[in-house]
Design brief:
InterPro entries: 6-hairpin_glycosidase_sf (IPR008928), 6hp_glycosidase-like_sf (IPR012341), GH65_N (IPR037018). By secondary structure, the chain is an alpha+beta fold. It has two domains: 248 residues, Beta-galactosidase, Chain A, domain 5 (Distorted Sandwich), CATH 2.70.98; 427 residues, Alpha/alpha barrel (Glycosyltransferase). 28% of the residues lie in helices and 24% in strands. It has 15 helices and 39 strands. The strands form twelve sheets. A nine-stranded antiparallel sheet has the order 1-8-9-10-11-20-15-14-13.
Length: 716
């Protein structure tokens, strides 16, 4: 088996669904923006290339012989690859297959449509599309979950057979049409954004009549007919028309170009000095299919979110979600969960991103967006820990310890070194204490959002304060301040006892203390994962065993896990599958397996890998997957992705999937890169996985290393 993935290696299983199933349609990107296919054979939605937005507008819905395809109730089968989405269905004697891509370097989507006549006679066919246009280009930062859109003026370009939508406010344009002359073209009615004129007001939205395109053909028995659909966005109408013309001239060529782009990107990600990124990932050689698949999924789950927009003020950035929500936003928390991959794959971008965050007030937002650099959202209480982890990982893997002396001015105007900032994050918890010894981390919005009992003094982040102070102590010692290092270590050791006050004796899980002192039991995976990362070595063996037993009994499933025990009273609070009873967030299974290793049960983590890997066959890991059995599956294996609509609100992919690559590198291979710049170490735990597995080309401080059961050595 080859060690660098091909496009077919990463392809999803065939996923078959019908209209209104709990199915999350796949997304696409070309590093400029993103798009999502819809519950249809041609339609696309959420076509957004910041600063060009079209919200969650759906366009290109298919009509066959004048009838709306969805009304036929036919099942649609979808296969995703990094470069394309293939959709297919059988309608009577017709087989329809479409290939959708985001062409490289273009703010556009194309769909190559092929219709085969399996009947015994020639057949006339009318193929129509319902088109919508809502392109916008606001000057303001994108601060809402759904990208901006605008009521468009609609015109017909009869020479091209295209519908031209444009934003009266900004001039942004969207041109849509076939790559062949249509038999029919009917513009929809334009409606002002502030009224229901020419449209129907429904549930507070403006529903405008859609434009229509229709092509006609005659297909002989056994023959295949093709036609292409192009949707091109641009800052101005002239640019949009040029893009449309360029793509409509060769839609199959655009499909091939997307394939070539992604094949090259996958190879470059594992090749030092190649490609667009400033680093590379080590190559994994193993006979364990599950280990390999999860590692590749972890790498792809970060690479997929790279954004190289010329309109971003930060240069290259990495989005957190796609393709539906929070485009152009990078969440500190999610970025930190893929910290190892960022540090190896693209350290220069990571450094620039960290410097930008340090310059903001990380106690007032959950991330920033890259169009303007503006802060987004409310405070996530994880930020101090997340930033500590990110800075530590960047310095460890890059070897750039001099960066710790870099002065960075902050939102309050005071310039301090990166090392000083890290020291402040490590002890910021002291300012969050109320009547008790532990920090109060606020309400649901500051923590898990959809778990009402997981508030205030939670075990996870208070345990992480122990870890952060120990990291700060390590840094102080490296810099020669042994007195400060000793004080931090003593404080960290003392805090362990305070955290232990939250443990529910004999249960394996923890409680959250309320401001009045009440302890509310919360059987949540985040405590399991994070306490194990922070203080596993401080826990008695019996408590470690109880935690493992709790996880296996209440949270673990065959192919995924629950974030919250189904026996927890708060299970009735929400149906969001990222943090609740019915599923788990992207990174939680990877972190849980890593927690098992830290708690001494790498055998259990290894046994879980085949089930987890079966969930990696739907494209990149979603923001949340359902535990198997909760909803009907659309593929033959794995935990289904949560859908984007209420009440689930799960995006199709999330960049914290890099945690799966970290599980392989630092979990099973046991790689340990000291903060002080000394040689990397490794304590592999491969016996139950693949004793012959190897990591080749792990780059630390500019040197390449290979890791195996025998340990870590410099590459030959």
């Amino acid at each position: 088996m080859h060690a660098i993935p091909t496009l077919d290696d990463l392809a999803s299983d065939p996923m078959t669904h019908r209209f209104e199933d709990t199915f999350n349609p796949p997304g696409l990107t070309n590093f400029l923006g993103a798009a999502q296919v819809d519950h249809d054979l041609v339609a696309v939605r959420s076509v957004n290339f910041p600063p060009l937005g079209s919200g969650d507008t759906i366009s290109g819905q298919l009509f066959l012989d004048g009838r709306f395809l969805r009304s036929l109730g036919v099942p649609i089968t979808v296969v995703w690859r990094p470069d394309r989405v293939i959709r297919s269905a059988r309608v009577g004697e017709l087989e329809i297959e479409t290939t959708t891509v985001c062409p490289p370097g273009e703010t556009a989507v194309v769909v190559d449509v092929r219709v085969t006549n399996h009947g015994g006679e020639a057949r006339e066919l009318r193929l129509g599309l319902a088109l919508a246009s809502a392109v916008a280009q606001p000057a303001e930062p994108w601060l809402a979950p759904v990208p901006p859109s605008d009521a468009n003026r609609l015109d017909v370009d009869r020479a091209r057979g295209a519908i031209v939508g444009s934003s009266p406010a900004t001039g942004a344009a969207c041109v849509q049409g076939f790559d062949a002359a249509p038999a029919l073209i009917v513009p929809g009615a334009s409606a002002p954004a502030d009224s229901g004129a020419d449209g129907a007001a429904w549930r507070g939205e403006e529903i405008h009549s859609l434009s229509r395109l229709e092509a006609e053909t005659r297909i002989e028995p056994g023959a295949t007919w093709r036609i292409g659909y192009v949707q091109a966005l641009a800052h101005a109408q002239e640019q949009a028309l040029e893009t449309f013309d360029r793509l409509a001239a060769d839609v199959p060529g655009a499909v091939r170009a997307a394939e070539q782009l992604w094949a090259r990107e996958l190879t470059d990600a594992f090749t030092p000095g190649a490609g667009a990124t400033s680093g590379s990932l080590p190559v994994l050689e193993t006979s364990n299919d599950a280990l390999r698949e999860l590692y590749w999924a972890g790498v792809l789950g970060v690479l997929w979110f790279r954004r190289d927009s010329p309109d971003g003020v930060l240069g290259r950035s990495y989005d957190t979600l796609m393709p539906r929500y929070w485009q152009s936003t990078t969440f500190i928390w999610d970025y930190s969960l893929s910290s190892t991959v960022h540090a190896l794959l693209d350290p220069q971008t990571m450094r620039r991103q960290l410097e930008h965050w340090i310059a903001t007030d990380i106690h007032t937002h959950f991330g920033t967006e890259w169009l303007t650099g503006a802060p987004v959202g409310y405070w996530y209480s994880v930020n101090d820990f997340a930033m500590t982890r990110l800075v530590r990982d960047y310095v460890r893997f890059s070897g750039e310890r001099d960066w710790l002396d870099r002065q960075i001015a902050t939102a309050d105007g005071g310039a301090r070194t990166v090392a000083d900032h890290l020291g402040e994050w490590a002890t910021a918890w002291r300012g969050l204490r109320g009547r008790h010894a532990l920090a109060d981390y606020g309400g649901t919005d500051n923590l898990l959002e959809c778990v009402s009992s997981y508030v205030h003094e939670v075990a996870s982040l208070n345990a992480m304060n122990v870890w952060c102070m120990r990291v700060a102590a390590e840094l102080a010692a490296v810099r020669g301040d042994n007195g400060a290092a000793a004080e931090l270590r003593v404080a960290a050791d003392a805090l362990v006892g305070d955290v232990q006050e939250l443990y529910v004796a004999g249960s394996g899980h923890w409680a959250a203390r309320q401001p009045g002192g009440e302890l509310v039991s919360v059987a949540h995976a985040y405590d399991f994962n994070t306490v194990a990362m922070a203080i596993a070595g401080d826990l008695p063996d019996a408590q470690r065993d109880e935690m493992v037993a709790f996880f296996a009994r209440e949270l673990q499933s065959e192919t995924w896990m629950r974030a919250l025990s189904a026996s927890d009273p708060d299970a009735a609070f929400s149906n969001r599958p990222d943090h609740q009873w019915n599923g788990a967030y992207t990174a939680w299974p990877a972190d849980a397996a890593h927690a098992l290793i830290r708690l001494g049960r790498d055998d259990l983590a290894a046994a879980w890998l085949p089930g987890l890997a079966s969930s990696a066959h739907q494209g990149p890991f979603a923001q949340g997957h359902f535990v198997e059995g909760i909803v009907p599956a659309h593929a033959d294996r794995g935990a289904p992705k949560g859908p984007p609509q209420e009440p689930y609100l799960m995006d199709w992919a999330c960049s914290s999937a890099g945690a799966f690559a970290d599980l392989v590198i630092q979990g099973f291979f046991g790689v340990d890169v000291p903060f002080d710049g000394s040689a990397p170490r490794a304590t592999p735990r491969l016996a139950a996985v693949d004793p012959d597995a190897r990591l080749r080309g792990l780059v630390v401080a500019g040197r390449s290393y290979d890791v195996s059961t025998d340990g870590i050595v410099a590459s030959a």
